[in-house]
C-alpha cells in the first residue's frame, strides 16, 4: 500500500472518530420535549424531574397539585418545562428549596435521592423503615440512580403508607380508546373510567427487561397503538395514570356491560360511553340484544359472556352510596361494578345520583342479590317532590321522637302490611320502636283532602299539616322524615313561607314561578338523595310549610301552573332573597368557585337603572363602580337616591358590636367555618397584611387573638364584600364569601337598627355583606366596630321586596321575572 493510500485511510478513520464523538456530544445534549436527554433514556437512569413527578403523587393528586400557587424559581429562565408543577409540589412537601440552581433535566444521583428520602422521613415517621428492605445502598453517592432502583424505592414507600392515606394505587385497566373531546384532551377511555396520561411513562421494560423496550413518555396515539384492546397494569392517582407497569396477558372480565347486539362472531357493546365491537373466539350460542352481562376478554377476543336477565321495578325511596332502597323490595346492595345506563333516546352512561328518588322510571338488573345495573328507561316528568323535614326551629334533620296523626282516616304501611287508623288516633315513635323493625314506614291519608299532622314538630303557625304522604326511616343518628307530594302542592306551602301573601297576587305569581324553577333544578339534581329527598324544608333550600298555605298562595300556583324561568332552553336556578341594598350582585361574588352567569349579573334596581347617569358600570355614572370603597359608602349614605327597595326597613341598617363580642363570636365559629371550606379562610404568612403582595395560605386556625383591625380587602359587583381582613394579635386572616363574613361578624348580642329605627336582636348573621366599617375608640383604644349597610340576604337574583315595588308600579309577573333575570323567558316543565 503506497503512502498516499495510507493517508487516505487514516483520514477516513479520523473523520469517522470525529463523527462518532460529535454524535455522542449531540446525543448527550439533545433533549426531548419531556426534558430528558436521550443519554438518560439509553442508560436508564432517572432524571430529577421524573423523580419529583413520582414523589409529588405521595401527597398531591392532579387537581390538588394544579391548585397550588407556583412558588419555585429557576436560576436559568430557560430551565422551566413540563415538570414545573411537580417540582412546585415537591417544594410544598418540604423536600427541596424554592430556588432551583441545577436543572431537573439532569440525572438524579444516589446521594441526592437519599437527601430527598431523609427529608420525607422526617416529615412522615411511618416511612422510617424504607431503607431496610432495599436490594441496593446509597454508598456511591455521586452515581446516577438507575430507574429500576428508584422504582423499587418508590414501591417500598407506597407499601409503608397506610391504605386510607394512600393516593397512589394499583389498577388493572382495559384500554378502549382515546377520548376525542377538548374537555377530555390527554385522556384515554378505559373500562374503569377516563384517565389522564400526560407525562405517563411506560416502565414495562424496566420491570421486565426481557421486553426490551426503553421507558418513554407516551402520547395518546402511542398508548392506543401499543395498548388498545389490551389490559394494562398501572399505578394511578385519582384519574391519572402515574406509570404503566406491564401489559396484562391473562383474561380480563369487564363487568355489567351493556350489550347492544350479539350475533355469530361479533358483539356490539357500550362500555363507559364508548360503542365498541368485539369479535368472539367462538360462535355465540344465541343472539343477544339490549341486555347486561359480564364479558371475559383474552387476547382481544371475547371468550365468554355471562348475561344477567333478572330485572325488578319499583319506586326508588333512597339512593345510598352502596345500596338502593326500592319500594316493595327494601334496601338492595350495589355491586362493586354497578353501572347506570340511560337507554331511552341516545344511549349514555350516567352518574350514580341520576337514580332519581321518588320515581319508578328505572329498571334494576339484579344478580347474586345485588344491583348490577340501573336502566333509566324514560325521562322524568318532575311531578312529585320529596322534602326532608326538620325538627322544631329547623335545628336538625334527625328526630328523637315523632308523633303523627291525620285530619282524616289514614293508613300506615309496613313493608308488605298495612293498617288503617281513624282520624282521632295518633301514633308515637322513637328510635328502636318495633314498628320500625321491618324498615321504612309510610303514612297516607285515606282521602285526597286529608293531611298528615306532625304533632311532635312546631312551626310558626303551630303543629304543621302536610299534603301527600309521610315516610319515616330509622338511622343510627335518629329518625328521618320525608314528605312526598306533588310539586305544585309543595309550592302552596313554600310561597307563604317565603313571601308575605298580603303582597298581592302578582308578586306571589313571581314567587311561584321562581320557587318552581328552584325546586325543579334541585329535584333533577337529586340533591338530597342520600336522605331519600330532593330538598329540605329550611333556608338551605327554600322554606316550606313554616307558614300555612292559604287561598292566595294556592291561586298563585294554579295561575302559573308548570311555568319556570328558562335561559337558552334550560331551567335556571332562580336565586332570590329578601331585600337589596339598591343593587344586586353577580353569583360569582357570593358562592365559592361560581362563575359569572348572564342572567344572574348585578344591576342597579331603579327605574333609570340602565341609563348612563346611574348605571353601575357606566363611563360617568353617579355610582359607576361600587367596588370602590368611597363610591360604595356614598351610595349607602345617599338618602335622596331612590331604588325599588328604598321603602323597606332592611334597605338600610347599622349595628355597633363591642370588640369583645366580635372576638368571642370569631373564636366560637372560626374553626368550624375553616373546616367547612379551608380555601375560604386563609392565614397571613408574610409580615404585613397591607403589603400589596401579602401572602395568605390555607392553614388550620381557631383564633386570631385580640382584635387589632377589621377592614375590607375586596368588593364585588354592587359593593358586596368578597374579601375581609381580620387582624389579630396572634393571627391575621382573609375571609372570603359573604356567608363566612356575615357569620364571623354575627351581631347575636347586639341590636341591629333598621331604616325605621327599630332594633332587631338575636340575628345569627349580619343582614348582608353590603356594608362599610367604622372603628370606635375609647381612651385611645379600639372598643367597637360599627357596620353600616343595606339589604337582607345574599343579593343574587331577585329581590322579593323589589318585586313588590315593581308590581305596585303596574308591572306583570312575567315582566318582573325578566327584569331580574335578564335574557330569560318563561317555559313549561310538564308535557
Automatic annotation (TrEMBL):
InterPro entries: SpoIID/LytB, SpoIID/LytB_N
Xref: Pfam families: SpoIID
All residue ranges annotated as the Sporulation stage II protein D amidase enhancer LytB N-terminal domain in the record: 476-567
UniProt keyword Transmembrane helix present: yes
Top-rank taxon, per record: Bacteria
Keyword vocabulary terms for this entry: Membrane, Transmembrane, Transmembrane helix
Positions of transmembrane segments: 7-26
GO biological process, one term: sporulation resulting in formation of a cellular spore
Signal sequence segment: none
Protein name: Putative membrane protein
Species per Swiss-Prot/TrEMBL record: Herbinix luporum
